[in-house]
Automatic annotation (TrEMBL):
Residue ranges, compositional bias (Polar residues): 1-19
Native source species: Desmophyllum pertusum
Top-level taxon: Eukaryota
Chain residue ranges for the region called Disordered: 1-23
InterPro entries reported in the protein's UniProt record: Run_dom, Run_dom_sf, RUN_SNX29
Pfam families to which the protein is assigned, alphabetical: RUN
Name of this chain's protein: Sorting nexin-29
RUN domain segment(s): 50-191
């Protein structure tokens, strides 16, 4: 049986769609597991959840993976691309989601993160914001705001991105709500948020397995 070119294209497209579907399911499974581990250890207790606990590190890693999934590469400025080619600027693949997040911040909130002394890169500001949102129990509110702004979502994310999967993305506010019973005490402004010193997101996900 011969397969025509159009049929090959259809089969290839179906395979790619199935692959991205699996990626999104894997992301939510890993995130829910990380939330569960933190909830069991810290939920409803007076113990502080800090950066030094491996379960908290895994939680942060999974949230970052969700934010990074399907982020449009074109959002990286041409200036920074030229700088990277010239060896002047080092692009951090983990940094880009800050550009999406800052579109949901008020002026005072944005100024607060732009004024950080140590977390001065896009990577640092993104990680600092995530830690701050967990500390202040404001992540659920942010997720509702983000998911409700379809214009910004389509501007920053590819159609196969996790945030564009309405069914799975709708679970994000719920996961954040579960974490509201945990007392987070995460360091917001430090060198570790500026440059990820614990490896790439993929490396960290493997450590969280």
């Amino acid at each position: 049986m011969f397969v025509t070119s159009p049929q090959k294209q259809i089969m290839s497209g179906q395979g790619q769609q199935h692959s991205t579907e699996n990626e999104r399911q894997h992301l939510i499974d890993r995130l829910l597991d990380a939330v569960k581990q933190c909830q069991v250890r810290f939920g409803g207790k007076t113990d502080l959840a800090t950066d030094g606990d491996s379960r908290v590190v895994c939680l942060l890693t999974q949230f970052e993976a969700v934010f990074q999934h399907g982020f449009k590469k074109s959002r990286v400025s041409a200036f920074r691309q030229v700088g990277q080619a010239a060896g002047i600027v080092k692009l951090d693949s983990d940094s880009v989601f800050w550009n999406f997040v800052k579109g949901h911040l008020g002026k005072l909130e944005l100024d607060r993160f732009l004024a950080l002394e140590k977390a001065t890169t896009d990577a640092g500001r993104g990680r600092a914001w995530l830690r701050s949102a967990l500390n202040e129990h404001s992540l659920e509110r942010y997720f509702h705001h983000m998911l409700g702004n379809k214009t910004l979502l389509s501007q920053f994310y590819e159609k196969e991105a996790f945030f564009m999967d309405e069914e799975r993305a709708s679970m994000l506010p719920m996961t954040a709500a579960v974490l509201s019973s945990i007392l987070f005490a995460l360091t917001v402004d430090n060198e570790e948020t500026k440059h990820c010193t614990t490896g790439t997101t993929t490396d960290n996900q493997q450590r969280c397995a």
